[in-house]
């Protein structure tokens, strides 16, 4: 979290001020959209945590024990039409059961 100037710290070690900084950064993070593709070329997601770094049976990070991923934060590409939401919900369900 170099951007937030919070490095090499466990979540349980964060103080209230650091938590507020993280929350405000996430709430006010702006993404500029420079164009919109045609429906036939639209994809919901591109980039994110590579699936090679995630245990598919639990959705837990293979690199950081106790960290789970689901949905749009993962590097799964799919066409529009409900496929990504189905994948996200399935991953979320798997992660919740594992946690």
List the helices and strands and how they pair.
Elements: H1 16-27, H2 83-98
Can you give a write-up of this model?
- This protein is mainly α and 99 residues long.
- It has two domains: 1-30, no CATH class; 35-99, no CATH class.
- Helices cover 28% and strands 0% of the residues.
- The chain contains two helices and no strands.
- The protein has helices at residues 16-27, 83-98.
- The longest helix has 16 residues, at 83-98.
- The protein is globular, with a radius of gyration of 16 Å.
- The two termini are 23 Å apart.
Could you say which overall geometry the principal axes of the C-alpha atoms support?
A: globular
Number of strands: 0
Helicity range of the residues? 25-40%
Structural domain tally: 2
Beta-strand proportion: under 5%
Q: Total helix count?
A: 2
Tell me, rounded to a whole number, the average pLDDT.
84
Largest sheet: none
Spatial gap, N to C terminus: 23 Å
Along the chain, the helix and strand elements come as: HH
Structural class: mainly alpha
Radius of gyration: 16 Å
Question: What are the low-pLDDT stretches, counting only 5+ consecutive residues below 50?
Answer: none
At a glance:
The chain is mostly helical. Helices cover 28% and strands 0% of the residues.
Characteristic terms for this protein:
single chain; 99 residues; mainly alpha; 2 domains; 2 helices; 28% helix
């Amino acid at each position: 979290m170099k951007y937030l100037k919070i490095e090499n710290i466990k979540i349980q070690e964060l103080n209230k001020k650091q938590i507020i900084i993280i929350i405000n950064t996430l709430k006010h993070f702006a993404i500029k959209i420079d164009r919109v593709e045609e429906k036939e070329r639209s994809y919901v997601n591109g980039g994110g945590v590579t699936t090679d770094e995630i245990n598919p049976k639990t959705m837990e990070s293979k690199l950081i024990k106790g960290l789970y991923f689901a949905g749009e934060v993962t590097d799964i590409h799919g066409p529009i039409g409900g496929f990504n939401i189905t994948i996200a919900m399935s991953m979320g369900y798997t992660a919740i059961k594992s946690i």
